[in-house]
Amino acid sequence: MSTKEIVINAVTAIFTNFDPDAAQQLLAENYIQHNPAVPTGAAAILGFIPALQESGLKTETHRVIAEGDLVVLHNTYHNAQVFGAETLVGFDVFRVEDGKVAEHWDNLQVPGEPNPSGHTMTDGATEVSDPDKAADNKALVTDFVETVLKGGDASNITDFISAETYIQHNPAIADGLDGLGSALAAMAENGITMVYTDTPIVVAEGNFVFTASEGTLGGAPTAFFDLFRVEDGKIVEHWDTISEIPSEMAHDNGKF
Predict the structure, then answer these.
(1) pLDDT score of 112 more than 90
(2) Fewer Cβ within 10 Å of end Cβ, the chain: N or C?
């Protein structure tokens, strides 16, 4: 099986079929967990499956991209009270080793209303294309994160983001560079700072590039999970989830 198939089968076993026997075959025993609320190890996941089934949880997967041993799923979790809210949108990142899922990172957010341009956190393009451009697109997005999001230098932002088409799925930001600029200006006026400090995970497949970053929002430790779609050498679409990193976790693995 491909890494995508392994991950999709594992997620289906856990969150759709609620089948601990099937899940056990696909999870490494020493499964490393980075979700702050879930203990590490496969046993914790397997033991949680009956509660997931009883809760009526429904999982909807919107996008799947993979590079090497990493697979990223863009999901909506419905009836997700067991995770703390009725509905949650999240990015789940899985690392596959020796044919089993060996590590997991995620970032969950309660979805807001459609943004000022009418987009939700999950609609938009889904098809993976341009497989031969993955390396170039990964380099473009990595440079954008380093220069603009970490470095704070937006003077050449049109080198990265299309000035003609930029579709935004963040609930608070409208489409286009004007929408992005207005949102950042409003944050500055309210004294809210957004700082990206480290980006330990970057996954690219074709026209999609995913980044998982650590930083602060309003001074609070925060995880930023971003998905970018690239077309003709420019970023043309963006999805994200933003979540505060708690000081205490159910394990010693950290958020990243």
Answers:
(1) no
(2) N
